[in-house]
Amino acid sequence: MSRLTVGLVDYGVGNLTSVTHALHDAGFRVRLAGDSTVLDACDVLLLPGVGAFPSAMRKLRETGLDVYLRDAAKTNRPLLGICLGMQLLAEESFEMGHSRGLGILPGRVIPLRDTPWHIGWNSLECTVPDSAFQNSHGQYFYFNHSFALNGASEHVAAVAHVPGTVTAAVRRGRIAGLQFHPEKSQHAGTSLLRALILEIAHA
């Protein structure tokens, strides 16, 4: 069986080198591109992200990738968002004011309620029987964020406790998001990336 190719969406925001290495370690081919023709040839799309929501959405709009990603979701293409990339899938964000998101997943991005920042290693509590996440229950992953997705309860696959509960992973069919950084989470992150990408690719 040929290896899947992951299209790593390049819009000028994200830890592209680390994500590329993690995807290679997980056994996938990687195409780094902001061009729709290249991304169309990939099996799975991955939207990374580091930084602030408003500036990231602005860059997606400037490149036309916002429309591309919405259309990809409408046609049921596999799509994974990581960290800020997961938040961008939401309907709206209240980081630095109010911004519209991609609207691919329901919910809004709001400040963490119980701490100003969630940074460091935390364990996952998987909340649904999803084969993509079942082996990650109780394992530790690296988080670094001060905002989180809220209001997508029917799609939440895993949570973390900060001590308040935050959404750590979401999944709706072939669309998924991870609030933590699997590319910085060593073996646990690589294993989850492999399982989740294979799952959404073949869902």
Descriptive account of the structure:
The protein has 203 residues and is of the alpha/beta class. Helix content is 29%, strand content 31%. The protein contains 6 helices and 14 strands. It has an 8-stranded mixed beta sheet, sandwiched between helices. It has a 4-stranded mixed beta sheet with strand order 6-5-7-11. The longest helix has 17 residues, at 186-202. The protein starts with a strand and ends with a helix. The model has no long low-confidence stretch (mean pLDDT 95).
Globally, the shape reads: globular
pLDDT < 50 stretches: none
Strand order of the largest sheet: 2-1-3-4-14-13-12-9
Q: Report the order of strands and helices.
A: EHEHEHHEHEEEEEEEEEEH
**Helical content class:** 25-40%
Q: Cα distance, first to last residue?
A: 17 Å
The number of distinct β-strands equals 14
The computed structural class is: alpha/beta
- Contiguous helical run count: 6
Characterize the largest beta sheet: strand count, sense, and whether it forms a barrel. Answer: 8 strands, mixed
From the alpha-carbon coordinates, what is the Rg to the nearest angstrom? Answer: 15 Å
